[in-house]
Structure formats: structure tokens, C-alpha cells
Amino acid sequence: MKKQPQVTEQTKANLRDAFWQLYTQKPLDKISVREITDLAGYNRGTFYLYYRDVYDIFSQIEDELLEKIQTALTDSTQQSDVFDLSAHMGIFLELMQTHSKYASVLLSDHGDPHFASRLKELLLPFLNRYFLPTGKMNAYEQELLSEFYLAGLLAAIIRWNRDPQMRLDEFILFIVSNVFGDSYT
Fold first, then answer.
1. Which candidate, 98, 79, 157, 97, places its Cα nearest to that of 123?
2. Is 29 found in the same domain as 85?
3. What is the pLDDT, as a whole number, of residue 83?
4. Distance of alpha carbon 133 from the chain centroid
5. Do residue 31 and residue 111 come from a single domain?
């Protein structure tokens, strides 16, 4: 007997929500499958239908978020020959806001440093392609400048996401005009 897709997705969502609630309270290695299933209202067998262990559910959350970011940025750059920094940064930030439940924790001190590294690797080709003056630098210098831009941009996004005192469009304009200059606004 096959399960209905809607029931499967709802069950997975309930397990993820229970996991995430626990993850925001304690380290990953301190979370048990039993805690997740008790909180979600399922038995352990149900958990193992969808996930190998606690690390697998965590990894799937990270992978899906990164995949959504990659897809959105790739799709948006393929739709136009001209790269609009404000628009593309807006797409990225909207995704971060939409998924802030995960993104804000993953990029916080409590989060996973590996996630931040993977996010930087995902953003690096866009940064290198559109913003860095590659002809003027050797590979090492380009890598240093890329890391500088990415670290600063992510830090600003994390800070803004934690306490957004500016509207999204105001934040984008602020970053673009102050970091990349008026030529991008």
C-alpha cells in the first residue's frame, strides 16, 4: 500500500519542525531520534522511513536550502544578459528571509560552520564572474578579495536578518551603494 504524497510530505515536515525546535535549543549531537519523534507525535519507525539518523535530517535541511538558493540565482542570471546586482541580491535575501527559520540559525554562532562554507562556495562563482576585476589580480589575490567580500556580505545579511530595522529594498540599496559603489545602484 502506497502512502499519499501529501501525507508523506506532512509527516516529513512535522519531523523536521520537531528536529528544528530541538536544534535551536541544543547541539546536534545531543538530539536523539526519540526526542524528535516524541515531539512530533510519531514512532521511531516513522522517522527511519525518511531519515537515517539525526545528522541525515540536518543534512537534508541544509542541502535543500542551498539548492533553492543555487536554483534561484542560476535561473535569474540565465534570464538576462545583464547582471543586476540589486535584483540578484534581492532574490538571495528574499530566500534567506523566507527560510529565515533555518538560515538565521545555520549562519549563527549556534549553526553549522560547514553550511556557511558551502554557501560561500555557492556564491563565489557569481561574485567572481560579475564583481572582481580578475584581469588586475593573480589567483591568490582574487581569492583573498572574494573571501573578504563574501565574509562581509554574509555578516551583514546575518546581522540584518536578526534585527531587520531596514526594509529589504533599503538594505539592498545600502549595501550595494556603500560596498560596490554607485555604479551598481
1. 157
2. no
3. 56
4. 26
5. no
31/91 same-domain check: no
- Whole-model pTM: value is 0.80
Half-sphere exposure of 4 (CA within 13 A, CB side): 3
Residues 10-44: tens digit of each pLDDT: 999 999 999 999 999 999 999 999 999 999 999 99
DSSP states along 135-166: GGS-HHHHHHHHHHHHHHHHHHHHHHHHS--S
Do 114 and 173 belong together in one domain? yes
The answer for 41, left when phi > 0, alpha when psi is -120 to 50, beta otherwise, is left
pLDDT for residue 44: 95
Question: Do 15 and 90 have their domain in common?
Answer: no
The CATH number that applies at residue 16 is 1.10.10
